[in-house]
Amino acid sequence: MNLVLLGPPGGGKGTQAKRLQDKYGIIQLSTGDMLRAAVASGSEIGRKAKAVMDAGQLVSDDIVIGIIDERLDQPDTGRGVIFDGFPRTVAQAEALDAMLIRKGKRLDSVIEIRVPDAPIVERITGRYTCGTCGAGYHDKFQKPAVEGKCDACGGTDFIRRADDNAETVNKRLAAYHAQTAPLLPYYETHGILRIVDGMQDIGKVTKDLEIILDGAAVK
Ligand code: AP5
Ligand code: MG
Ligand code: ZN
After folding, report:
1. Which of 58, 63, 111, 211 is the most exposed place for a label (fewest CB within 10 A)?
2. pTM flag (> 0.90)
3. pLDDT, tens digit (0-9, with 9 covering 90-100), for 141-154
4. Is 123 helix (H, G, I), strand (E, B) or coil?
């Protein structure tokens, strides 16, 4: 099963993708995570992407399409993937459609996690992740059981993203509305778009996603 999670920055795509991976045996492919790894490694792609990401703008279609094209050839994607943060432009969506046909795969579901702009800044500026295992947390909405200690791995080092400040968040939101929101009518026309209310608590959003995916799986 191949699934796209659409939604604004801070909408909960990464949080939900991590929760769905195990249940459905499919893996999260976050272009944001891949680009941050490229930046950390100092690769040519990372050098090109860094300034664009720090400015809250979108990295070029060619770069992200190339990353996904290569990644989908790895055997661990065989049972399916959750695209998190990709596609993000109509050109990327068209490239994904063509790529999946070429590779003999298909998109089963596209789900918009719908969240209005107002809560986004608080969600993003409160976000942090475990530096050891990548588990996600929030200062207010998703605290570890023991403060300062990761629930998943016991790690005590946490990181915050360079682009998670109020100023850059507003630019990322503007990019979402201008360049990514047009994907909603694109997928609606294809008849595979579903919507989940992303303002509910994290567990309830997961439940709503599971209802959709369980329906898609029996088809
Ligand atoms: P990317 O890493 O994809 O960032 P983004 O789209 O801005 O999304 P986020 O990761 O910020 O949000 P999320 O939806 O994953 O939310 P999360 O689950 O963490 O991209 C970063 C940059 O890379 C882009 O700006 C661009 O430059 C570049 N890039 C990436 N892909 C690209 C592409 N395809 N094309 C071009 N450029 C690309 O949740 C946020 C917080 O809220 C967490 O702390 C969480 O605990 C909390 N939370 C989650 N759900 C809830 C809830 N229901 N209630 C309360 N709190 C919640
Ligand atoms: Mg994310
Ligand atoms: Zn951890």
Report:
1. 211
2. yes
3. 999 999 999 999 99
4. helix
